[in-house]
Design a protein that fits this description.
By secondary structure, the chain is an alpha/beta fold. The protein is 32% helix and 22% strand.
Amino acid sequence: MMRTAILIPARYASSRYPGKPLAELTLPDGTRKSLIRLTWEAAARVAGAPEIHVCTDDARIREHAEGFGASVIMTPEACRNGTERCAAAVAVAGIEADTIVNLQGDAPLTPPWFVDALVAAMAAGEAPVATPVLRCDATTYGHFVEDRKAGRVGGTTAVFDAGGRALYFSKEVIPWLDPAKVDPEAIPVFHHVGVYAYSRAALAAYGELPEGALERLEGLEQLRFVENGWPVACVEVEARGRVFWELNNPGDVARIETVLRESAP
């Protein structure tokens, strides 16, 4: 049976939002929880993942995460992105899982079936790396366009070939659409969800791969695999009525709180 571990990389020194993992969100019942706690709770809803670890280099995040019961792995400050931090955590803690899932600490709205789909793709041997993509609905597409017009970096989009292999990821909204021809029922823009599943070999190799020009320009870690010829499976997932959004900027707090209110039972 394939063993899976979920790692949640979290760093304090975000250039766009310092201290982001500890940012508090107001829940529908009026209580407040940190972003990292909400993400950890999202990971706990995934079936069949006995190992869940927060991976950080910051004592404040460690103290906070251990306070709500999370297992924490301390990783080097030199880690430049979440994938490098996951690789370091596997080495430091001696994690022996066959598939390692990187659930980034700014994605508390990630439904468990997104992760289930990645684990299934890895079990089927579709690629050494898999990541979910979600067709944009009109609301999400509007958020993308609004952010870019305002000069904000919002979510990431993905384009892939007919076999589902990634061609490119970008912080721009791609492909470009003629506003007069956009069909709100079938928008051909896919939101890249910031979750990854890696084989042990792919994750171990990542740190040895050269950082490419596109990765540096976009600031997207997954482009290192693409630029170095490693296939990345883009696994299309369904929202099932939920709105998905990561917390990229301080302004996203209100967006996520709205989703939490609207989805409350």
